[in-house]
Fold:
Amino acid sequence: QVQLVESGGGLAQPGGSLRLSCAASGFSFGDTYMSWARQAPGKGLEWVALIGAASAITNYADAVKGRFTISRDNLRNTLYLQMNGLKPEDTGLYYCVKGVRLTDPASRGQGTQVTVSS
Structure:
């Protein structure tokens, strides 16, 4: 059974930083592409970043490129998202996603809330 547990969200000021973590279990994490997605209040789910199984491949949405960094530790079955230069428009519920498709709710965690406000 796939389990993804996000943590690290909270309140940050504009320009601030947060680091999200996702503890994964129930599948072969080290062989699986992983992604982060987010959902702003009143909006649909938005893909944020992805990383290949061996970390050789990363890709980012234009809205976060240059500010966010996705990484992973395959020994600890953990996915990370380092978020710098936060903006109010980054506010939302951030999800860890198994794979690169956002259409299956069973492939993402419960989310961690990020709020960027002064």
